[in-house]
Amino acid sequence: MREDFLHGDEAIVEGALAAGCSFFAGYPITPSTEVLEYMARRLPEVGGVFIQMEDELASIAAAIGASWTGRKAMTATSGPGFSLMQEGIGYAIMSETPVVILDVQRGGPSTGQPTIASQGDIMQARWGSHGDYSIIALAPNSVQECFDLTIEAFNLSETYRTPVILLTDAEINHMMEKLIIRDDFEIRERICFPKGRVLFPFEAKEVPPFPVFGRGNRVHVTGLAHNISGYPATIDPKAFEDLITRIINKIELNEDKICKSEVVNPDADLIIVAFGLPSRAALEVVKNDSRIGLFRPITLWPFPGKDLMRIAEGKKILVLEMNAGQIVREIERFAGRKNVRLFSKLGGVVHRPAEIMETIKKWGVL
Amino acid sequence: MEIFEFFRRDRWPHMFCPGCGNGIVMNCIQRAFSDAEINIDRTVFVSGIGCSSRIPGYISADSLHTLHGRAIAFATGVKLGNPDLEVIVITGDGDLGAIGGNHFINACRRNMDLTVICINNSIYGMTGGQVSTGTPHGFKSSTTPKGNPEYPFDFSAMAATLGANFVARWTVAHVKQLTKSIKLAIEKDGFSFVEVISPCPTYFGRQNKMGDPIKLYRWIKENSVRIEKMKEESCINVDEKITIGIFRDADRKSYLGRGNENRC
Question: Which of A81, B30, B125, B263 is the most exposed, fewest CB within 10 Å of its CB?
Answer without folding.
Answer: B263
